[in-house]
Amino acid sequence: MDACYASAHSGIENLIDRSLIYVSQNQIAMHDLLQQMGWNVVCKESPLEPKRRSRLWISNDIYDVLIENTGAKTLKSMLLDMSRISELELKPEAFVKMRKLKFLKFYHSCGTNSKILLPHGLLSLPDELRYLCWEGYPLKTLPTKFHPRNLVELDMSYSHVEKLWEGKQDLVNLKVMTLNHSRNLVKIADLSSATNLETMNLVNCTKLLELPSSLQHLEKLTHLNLRMCENLRFLPSLYKATSLTTLILSDCSILCSFPEVSSNLKELHLEGTAIEQVPSSMESLSRLVLLSMEDCVRLNNFPTAICSLRSLEVFSLNGSLKITTFPEISGNITELNLGGTAIEEVPSSIECFSNLRILNLGCCRRLKGVSTSIHKLKSLKTFYLEDCSRLEIFPEILDTMERLRYLELSGTALKELSPSMENLIGLEELRLNNCENLACLPDNFYKLKSLQFLCLYGCSNLVTWPDNLFSAIGGASLTEMQRDLHRLSSLENLDLTGSNLENLPKSIKQLPRLKQLILRKCKRLKSLPELPPSLKHLDAHDCTSLEEISSIKKLFEQAVLCKDRPYGFLEWIFSNCFQLDQKAVRNARTPKLQMLFGHMVTLLKDYHQEFPKINKVITCVPGSEIPEWFDFKSSGYSINIQLPSEWYYNSSKNFPTFVVSTVVSFQDYSGDREILIRCECRLKSRNGDCHDLSCSFLTWTKRIPGSELIGSDHLFL
After folding, report:
1. Which intervals hold domain Disease resistance protein Roq1-like winged-helix (predicted)?
2. Nearest alpha carbon to residue 247 among 276, 281, 221, 272
3. Does pLDDT of 656 surpass 70?
4. Which of 55, 357, 403, 414 sits between 20 and 30 A of 110, alpha carbons compared?
5. Does pLDDT of 57 surpass 60?
6. What CA–CA distance (Å, rounded) separates 176 from 248?
7. pLDDT for 223
8. How far is it, in rounded angstroms, from Cα 107 to Cα 124?
9. Residue 483: pLDDT band by 50, 70, 90 thresholds?
10. Confidence of residue 702 (pLDDT cuts 50, 70, 90)
11. Number of structural domains found in the chain
C-alpha cells in the first residue's frame, strides 16, 4: 500500500478507528457495506462501459476487456478469478494500453490450471505494477520489456517459468517473491539489487539447482522457504543475512550440509534432508527457538554443543532412525519430539526440563524404560508412548501431576498400570489401544476424576478389572461391571471395542457426561442397560450377540422431553448386529424393532408442548424391510408426497417431524471405505415457493479396520 499511496498507514488507522475494517494476522478485512460502497463508487465512473473504469473485479467484464484488447489508460487494478471464466487466449499486446495498471491478480479459487493462454507470447507488462500475481503463468520468462523497478510483491505460483528474466534487474522495491510449485524453475537471477526483499517462497520448485550467492547480502530478508526443492544440494552462505529469522529446507532430500546462517535465526526446518552431521558451530545460534530435523535418516547423534542453545523451545527428531541417545538440551525446552528414534531409555536428567509441555516418544521400538523422575515434569501436558513395543512398565508416578491431560500408551507391552496412576489428577484422555499384554487396571482407577476419554480398544488380554469398578473376572465370565463406575464423573468418551463383555453395568447410566460409547466387535455383548441421558453417539457395530436394546427407548424419551439442554442429534449404529434383524426378531422374545421405533415416532407425533430439542435421530440396523407403520413407500431413491392442507398450523411449535427410512444392500461391502447417506427434502407450496431441508449420516468411517465386510442389507432410519 505504501507503494501506491503516500498516507496508507494513516488511512488504514482511520478506518480501523471507525470500525469499518480490522486487521487480523497481518490481513485486512472490511465490512460488507464498505466493500459495496467502494464497488458502487467505481461503477459510477462508467455505468455502461466497464472498460473505462479504474478497477475491474467482475470476471465477465475482465474477460471482455482482455479478449477485445480494450483496457483503458485509466485502469489501475484488475482482479480475476480464473475459475470463473472459460479459456482465454491473449494477444501479445494485451497490456500495452494499461500503462497505469498497479495491481494485477490472476488467481484460482479452485483448481490450479491456468485458463489464460499466451500462444504468441507477451510483449510487455505495465512498468507501474506494484503487485503482480499470476498463478499458472504459461511462459518461460517474464516479458523482456517489463521493468519491475516499482514491483513490491511478485507471486507466480504454479507458473511455467524457467527463469524470471534475463540479466540483472532493478528490484529495489521488491519485498515479497513467491514462486511456489513452479516446477520448471531452474535458476533464480541475480538479486543483489533487491535490497528490501523480506520474504522469499520457493516451495516445490523441483528443478531448482542452486540459489544466487547475492542472497547472502540481503540484509532485510527475514523468511526463506525452500521446502520440497528436491534437487537443491547446497546453499550459499547466509551468515550475512542478519535479519533472517525463518529458514525452511524441509524435504530438500539431497541437501547434505548444515546451512551456514546468522546467529539471529529463530526457526530452522531441516526435515527429510540428507544431513549426516551437525557441526559444533551451531552453538552460535543463540536465538534459535525451533529446530526440526524429523526424518533425517542419515543423521547421527548430536554434538554436546546443542545444550548451549538457551533459547531452544521446540526440538524435533521424529523418524531420525540413527539417534540412539537422549539428547542433552537446554532446560528451557517446551516441546521434545523423539518419536521413531532408536533411543532405549529416558534418563533421570529429564527432570531438568521443568518447562516441558509436550514429550513425544511414540514408535521408539527399542525403548525399554522411562525414568521415575518423570513426575517432576510439572508443566507436562501431553505424553506420547504409542507403539513402544518393548515398554513393559510405566514408571511410578511418585507425586501429583496436575497438568498432564493426554497420555498415549497404545501398542505398548504393558502388563499392568501402577496404582500410582491416581496421581495423574488432571488426566483427561487415556489411550490403551491394542495393549494386548495388559491384564488388569489398578483398583483405584476410579480416582481419575478428570478422565473424559478412555480407550481400551483391542485389549484382548484384559481379564481382571478392579473389584470396585467391575465385578466379574476373566474372559467368558466377564459379565458385569460394578457400582463404582459412576465415580468417573468426567468421562465423556468410552471405547470398549473388542472386549469380552456380556453385559454393561447398570451403573453406566450414572455417568453424567458420557456422550460417546464405542462397543464395536464386543461379540459376547447381549444387551444394553439403561444409558445415561447425556449419550449422543452409540456404536455397537458387529456386536453379533446383541439382542436386547429396548433401553434406548427411554434414552429417546429423555432427549425429546428434556428442557434443560439442547441435544442436537442422536446416533445409534447397530450394523452387523444380526440378532436385531427384523425378520429374526419377530419370532424371538425380544421386542420388535418396529415396535421400538414406532414408539419413538408416536412420541414425536404426540409431543406438542414445544419444539423438540433434538433435530436429528439416526439409527442403522440389519434389515431388508421398511417398517410397516410408514404411510408412504417407494422403490428407488425418491418419493413425492402430497401433504394435507392442515399439515402446518402457522406455529413453529407444531412444525412436523419427518421420519425417513431406507434399505441399503451392501453385497459384502468392505468397511474400509466410508459411505455418506444423505436425505434431501424439498417442501413446495401451491404458489411455487420452495424450502429445502437435509440431513446426512457418515457411516463406517476409517475407524473400522480394512477388509471388514458388511454382510447383509441394512435399514437406516
Report:
1. 5-45
2. 221
3. no
4. 55
5. yes
6. 16
7. 98
8. 20
9. very low
10. very low
11. 1
| Contact (Cβ atoms closer than 8 angstroms) between residue 100 and residue 120 | no
Cα gap 358→387, rounded to integer Å: 17
Which run of H or of E encompasses 602?
helix 593-606
Average pLDDT over residues 163-172: 91
Distance, in Å, from the CA atom of 445 to the CA atom of 429, rounded to the nearest integer, reads 13
- Any idea what DSSP says for residue 12? H
**Per-residue pLDDT tens for 452-474?**
999 988 887 876 555 555 332 22
247, 259 contact by CB (below 8 A): yes
Whether residue 695 lies inside any domain: the answer is yes
Q: Which residues contact 288 (CB under 8 A, 6 or more apart)?
A: 265, 266, 267, 268, 309, 311, 312
Q: Does residue 623 sit within a domain?
A: yes
CA 141 to chain CA centroid, Å, is: 37
Please tell me the predicted confidence (pLDDT) of residue 227: 98
Question: What H or E segment, with its residue span, contains residue 370?
Answer: strand 369-370
Taking only Cα atoms into account, the Rg of the chain, rounded to an integer number of angstroms, comes to 33
Residue 668 has pLDDT above 50, yes or no: yes
A 10 A CB-CB count for 444 gives 14
Residue 570 belongs to some domain of the structure: yes
- Angle among Cα 592, 598, 599 to the nearest 5 degrees reads 100
**Contact call for residues 287 and 310 (beta carbons, < 8 A):** no
**If DSSP codes are grouped into helix, strand and coil, which group holds residue 532?**
coil
Judge whether residue 666 has pLDDT over 70. yes
CA 522/CA 457 separation, integer angstroms: 10
Angle, helices 552-561 vs 593-606, to 10°: value is 10
Instruction: Check if the beta carbon of residue 229 is closer than 8 Å to that of residue 200.
Output: no
349-358 CB contacts, 8 Å cutoff, 24+ apart: 350/326, 350/374, 350/377, 351/376, 351/377, 353/377, 354/378, 354/379, 355/313, 355/331, 355/379, 356/380, 357/381, 357/382, 357/403, 358/334, 358/382
Cell numbers placing 218? 540481503
Q: What is the dihedral of CA 164, 169, 175, 180, to 10 degrees?
A: 10
How far is Cα 445 from Cα 430, in angstroms, rounded to an integer? 12
Strand 267-269 with 568-573, pairing: unpaired
> Which three-class secondary structure string do you get for 253-279?
CCCCCCCCECCCCCEEECCCCCCCCCC
Residue 714: phi and psi, rounded to 5, are -135, 145
Query: Residues for the chain: how many in total?
Result: 717
Per-residue pLDDT reduced to its tens digit, 256-294: 998 999 999 999 999 999 999 888 888 899 999 999 999
Distance of CA 632 to the CA centre of its chain: 41
> Half-sphere exposure (CA, 13 Å, Cβ side) for 345?
9
Count Cα atoms within 13 angstroms, Cβ side, for 170. 5
- Cell reading at 455: 480407550
Query: What residue type is assigned to position 211 of the chain?
Result: L
Please report the pLDDT score of residue 706 as a whole number. Answer: 43
- pLDDT class of 562 with cuts at 50, 70, 90: low
Q: Which residues contact 264 (CB under 8 A, 6 or more apart)?
A: 242, 243, 244, 245, 287
pLDDT of residue 339: 96
**Could you list the residue range(s) of the whole structural domain that residue 686 is in?**
550-716
Q: Which tens digits make up the pLDDT trace of 88-122?
A: 999 999 999 899 999 999 999 887 677 899 999 99
Residue 618 has pLDDT above 50, yes or no: yes
In whole angstroms, what is the distance from residue 491 CA to residue 455 CA? Answer: 11
Cell triple for 707: 477388509
**Contacts (Cβ under 8 Å, ≥6 apart) of 606:** none
CA-closest candidate to residue 535, choices 570, 562, 506 = 570
Per-residue CA distances from 617 to 111, 183, 562, 607, 610 (Å): 37, 50, 15, 16, 18
